[in-house]
Amino acid sequence: MGKKVLVIEDDQELGAQIVKRLRDAGYEPTWWKEGRRLSRETLPDVELVVLDLMLPGTYGMDILKDLRVFSEVPVLVLSARNDTADKVRALRLGADDYMTKPFWPEELVERVRARLRRPTLGRGDVVEVGALRIDRGRREVSVRGERVEVTRLEFEFLAALAERPGEAMTRSSLAERVLDPERDGTERTLDVHVSRLRKKLGRGAFVETVWGIGYRLGDGREE
Amino acid sequence: MKLRARLAVATIAVMLPMTFALFWYDASARHRAAEQNLTEFVFGQMPVAREACEAAPSSFGGELRPSRALGPPHSHRPPPEEPPRGEPPHGGPPHGGPPHGEPLPRPPRPRAARPAVVHAYDETFHSENPDAPAVPEALARAMEEQDVAITSHVLPTSSVEILARMPWGTGPCAYVLARGTTDPTWGAVLPESNIWLLPTVAVFAAMLLALGPVVRRIRKLTEAVQRSASATYADAVLIEGDDEIGVLARSFNAAGREIRSQLEEKDQREQALRHFLANTTHDVMIPLTVLQGHLATLREDAAAGKPVDVGALVSAMDEAHYMASLVHNLAATARLEAADVNLQRSEVDLETLVKRVVGRHKPIAKQLGVSIETAVPGEPVTVSADVTLLEQAISNVTYNAVRYNRSGGHVAVILERVAKEAVFRLRVVDDGPGIPEAELSRLAERGFRGNEARSRAPDGQGLGLHITHRAAELHGYRLTLRPSKYGGLEVELEGKLGAPPG
């Protein structure tokens, strides 16, 4: 069962598109075609609300205000007006994010996904990304259950990336964190260490190179 | 109320109480003088007249005559008009008198005033003289505390009455009641005749008369103002004189000029708006036409059973995306072209903003075969900014990097926090064709504004770049464009960190 999402959108076409896209992405959307005053009883059991601000009936901001009285459910606001006052107001009223029309359906689904993504499985010191397991407490790294011997520098590098799996980190910030400026030198040195580390980790793109930026911890899928 | 009537009413309202106060002050001054005169006279004469009084208390009293001691009232009564000063003592005063050779005391009874009347009383305020009037109760009571008591009839009578305790304080002449009248020559403020009223009335009349030309000029000015207003302040009113009315005319002309200039400004703005609308329509219509063309092609291909032309599809998507960005830019331009741009600053988290911008262009980048990646610091990067303008600024350079790239190209959006200098640094790097350095400096000189701003040519990043430039300028951020080390363009935006005050 997918997560339940409430879509409040008056436009027939756009509403239908959003609902279809969300359903295709594995969510269970409920579609309200008009604004209603919300109360604890009338709010369906959902994990996220996609709210259009320009609605007949009740104005989107009022719905948001009502909602925030009794619920902390994430709200993604859709707005056709690219207006600062509107955005600032929506955020102050407790919206979590906003999107300005027009947008690609992909973008909307991605935003919903980002909002509903569970926090990284980081039980204390242990971070698991795909088949890679990094134990910060014991300073151990293992791939598919097999321990991999890494140097202090390689471990620091992995631990730094593991803080935000899936997000790219710049070479310079990594070098600053991992390298000893007096002994280890430049960002180029970092690349050398990375290529050695990749060999140790074996098949799969655990350490991905990101163009123009640096590196990212991948889930190890083979390219 | 008309100006003249108002002035008359105001003048009367001021003059009446002032006249009354003047009369009152005059009367009270006369009374004070008469009282003092009477008191001095009584104390001056009584010691001399005491003997006579005590000798014949039943007949003592009557008009006071300074020439001799107070004697029997009916003997040698002088005529009222008899000048008192210099009157030699005549008739041997049997009961003493003022010491010889001494000047006579001041006259209690000057010309035109009734003579003072004096009566003596004993300690119980009883007089032996049957003609003596009863001592007023108030005066008798006042004797408990003072030696001289006065009944003042300031208005409306001119009579003065004093009761005095004699220094000896006993016998039938222990108290003396004296009655007299005031006299203008003693201490009046106003002259005897009412001639002074004449200049007062003359001033009043002159004032009303002088107002005539003033009223006339004001009427004239009013007419001129009405004429000018009906001609939308096109002609100025005639300025007459250097006085307040002249100043009024001048201020009116200044106000008229201000209104005219504002009207002109409004006209200009209206014209600019019409221009803007025409340009906008033109700008949006082109990509819309291209989009329609792509859609028609796709439809025809589908009808002919041909496989879907992915290229046309992607182009159509690109046009749609371009249009969206164009409309946002046009809206931003409308704000930025205003005479004074009102930045609606609030606390903006750049990390979220950058992710949002990259998220917006990622779908189209994917279609165009351009990879777009982003890196943000792990800590919040908060700035005080107008979120719409800043987002549009960053979106423009990001989209330019995607749009003017080639399939297989890369774009990286990197946000860094330079904690040491409390600044953020945002870099948008691509490996597209880039812009030659000469062209870059030329663009930068003109604030990235140019004819090609609205062009769709590959180097026509103009409108978007100009908005980025203006937004950076307004926020006080530094915008730098330089060739990237990957062969494309590197756009850097650097600015101060910090939440808005308050």
Automatic annotation (TrEMBL), chain A:
<dbReference type="GO" id="GO:0005829">
    <property type="term" value="C:cytosol"/>
</dbReference>
<dbReference type="Pfam" id="PF00486">
    <property type="entry name" value="Trans_reg_C"/>
</dbReference>
<dbReference type="GO" id="GO:0006355">
    <property type="term" value="P:regulation of DNA-templated transcription"/>
</dbReference>
<feature type="domain" description="Response regulatory">
    <location>
        <begin position="4"/>
        <end position="116"/>
    </location>
</feature>
<feature type="DNA-binding region" description="OmpR/PhoB-type">
    <location>
        <begin position="124"/>
        <end position="219"/>
    </location>
</feature>
<dbReference type="Pfam" id="PF00072">
    <property type="entry name" value="Response_reg"/>
</dbReference>
<keyword id="KW-0597">Phosphoprotein</keyword>
<keyword id="KW-0805">Transcription regulation</keyword>
<dbReference type="InterPro" id="IPR036388">
    <property type="entry name" value="WH-like_DNA-bd_sf"/>
</dbReference>
<dbReference type="GO" id="GO:0000976">
    <property type="term" value="F:transcription cis-regulatory region binding"/>
</dbReference>
<dbReference type="InterPro" id="IPR011006">
    <property type="entry name" value="CheY-like_superfamily"/>
</dbReference>
<keyword id="KW-0902">Two-component regulatory system</keyword>
<feature type="domain" description="OmpR/PhoB-type">
    <location>
        <begin position="124"/>
        <end position="219"/>
    </location>
</feature>
<protein>
    <submittedName>
        <fullName>Response regulator transcription factor</fullName>
    </submittedName>
</protein>
<dbReference type="GO" id="GO:0032993">
    <property type="term" value="C:protein-DNA complex"/>
</dbReference>
<dbReference type="GO" id="GO:0000156">
    <property type="term" value="F:phosphorelay response regulator activity"/>
</dbReference>
<feature type="modified residue" description="4-aspartylphosphate">
    <location>
        <position position="52"/>
    </location>
</feature>
<keyword id="KW-0238">DNA-binding</keyword>
<dbReference type="InterPro" id="IPR001867">
    <property type="entry name" value="OmpR/PhoB-type_DNA-bd"/>
</dbReference>
<dbReference type="InterPro" id="IPR039420">
    <property type="entry name" value="WalR-like"/>
</dbReference>
<dbReference type="InterPro" id="IPR016032">
    <property type="entry name" value="Sig_transdc_resp-reg_C-effctor"/>
</dbReference>
<keyword id="KW-0804">Transcription</keyword>
UniProtKB/TrEMBL annotation, chain B:
<feature type="transmembrane region" description="Helical">
    <location>
        <begin position="7"/>
        <end position="25"/>
    </location>
</feature>
<keyword id="KW-0808">Transferase</keyword>
<feature type="domain" description="Histidine kinase">
    <location>
        <begin position="279"/>
        <end position="499"/>
    </location>
</feature>
<keyword id="KW-0418">Kinase</keyword>
<keyword id="KW-1133">Transmembrane helix</keyword>
<keyword id="KW-0067">ATP-binding</keyword>
<keyword id="KW-0472">Membrane</keyword>
<dbReference type="InterPro" id="IPR036890">
    <property type="entry name" value="HATPase_C_sf"/>
</dbReference>
<dbReference type="InterPro" id="IPR050980">
    <property type="entry name" value="2C_sensor_his_kinase"/>
</dbReference>
<feature type="compositionally biased region" description="Basic and acidic residues">
    <location>
        <begin position="78"/>
        <end position="88"/>
    </location>
</feature>
<dbReference type="InterPro" id="IPR003661">
    <property type="entry name" value="HisK_dim/P_dom"/>
</dbReference>
<keyword id="KW-0902">Two-component regulatory system</keyword>
<dbReference type="InterPro" id="IPR005467">
    <property type="entry name" value="His_kinase_dom"/>
</dbReference>
<dbReference type="Pfam" id="PF02518">
    <property type="entry name" value="HATPase_c"/>
</dbReference>
<dbReference type="InterPro" id="IPR036097">
    <property type="entry name" value="HisK_dim/P_sf"/>
</dbReference>
<feature type="region of interest" description="Disordered">
    <location>
        <begin position="57"/>
        <end position="113"/>
    </location>
</feature>
<keyword id="KW-1003">Cell membrane</keyword>
<keyword id="KW-0597">Phosphoprotein</keyword>
<dbReference type="GO" id="GO:0005524">
    <property type="term" value="F:ATP binding"/>
</dbReference>
<feature type="domain" description="HAMP">
    <location>
        <begin position="212"/>
        <end position="264"/>
    </location>
</feature>
<protein>
    <recommendedName>
        <fullName>histidine kinase</fullName>
        <ecNumber>2.7.13.3</ecNumber>
    </recommendedName>
</protein>
<feature type="compositionally biased region" description="Pro residues">
    <location>
        <begin position="90"/>
        <end position="107"/>
    </location>
</feature>
